């Protein structure tokens, strides 16, 4: 099936969300994804804040990623150190606050669990074909 345009999702979604991506550099382009707790993955547009549905991830994997955010202690990390090139993870707890982790500033190295978690999320967005 072709991707379809979704104007307000995930803004109207009431459950937990993981936002993640990377950006910056010469082009300033940001690659921005949103994973909803129900397994739907969206990508945000480059030029605006519209979202495009990408795919649905398996429930077991999605639940594991949301659980791992807490079990790996990412919810306790307190750093937002973006640089010219940067990476980010945001946990949007339903009806509550947003927890942000960002890195990329030269001289700053995030902990291994943050990098491992991010890499697993980001690499899972790539087509398996």
Looking at this protein, list some descriptive labels.
single chain; alpha+beta; 129 residues; 33% strand
Your description of this structure?
The chain is an alpha+beta fold. The chain contains two helices and seven strands. It has a seven-stranded antiparallel β-sheet, covered by helices on one side. The relative contact order is 0.20. Residues 4-8 have low confidence and may be disordered.
Short description:
This protein has helices at about 60-70, 110-125, and strands at about 5, 15-25, 30-35, 40-45, 50-55, 85-90, 100-105. A hairpin with a 3-residue loop joins strand 3 and strand 4. It has about 130 residues and is of the alpha+beta class.
Secondary-structure map:
Blueprint: E1 5-6, E2 17-24, E3 30-36, E4 40-44, E5 51-56, H1 59-71, E6 85-92, E7 98-103, H2 112-123
- The H-and-E topology, N to C, reads as EEEEEHEEH
The radius of gyration is 14 Å
Report the total helices.
2
User: What are the segments in which pLDDT stays under 50 over at least 5 consecutive residues?
Assistant: 4-8
Strand order of the largest sheet: 1-5-4-3-2-6-7
Summing up helix and strand content along with how strands pair, one would put the structural category as alpha+beta
| General form | globular
Portion in beta strands:
25-35%
Mean pLDDT: 88
Distance, first to last CA: 15 Å
Quantity of strands, as a count:
7
Major sheet attributes = 7 strands, antiparallel
């Amino acid at each position: 099936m072709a991707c379809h345009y979704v104007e307000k999702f995930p803004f109207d979604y009431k459950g937990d969300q993981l936002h993640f991506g990377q950006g910056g550099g010469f082009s300033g382009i940001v690659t921005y994804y949103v994973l909803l707790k129900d397994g739907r993955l969206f990508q945000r547009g480059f030029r605006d804040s519209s979202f495009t549905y990408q795919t649905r991830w398996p429930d077991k994997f999605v639940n594991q990623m949301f659980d791992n955010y807490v079990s790996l202690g990412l919810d306790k990390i307190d750093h937002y150190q973006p640089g010219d090139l940067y990476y980010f993870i945001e946990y949007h707890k339903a009806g509550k606050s947003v927890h942000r982790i960002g890195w990329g500033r030269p001289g700053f190295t995030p902990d291994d669990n943050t990098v491992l978690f991010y890499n697993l999320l980001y690499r899972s967005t790539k087509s398996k074909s």
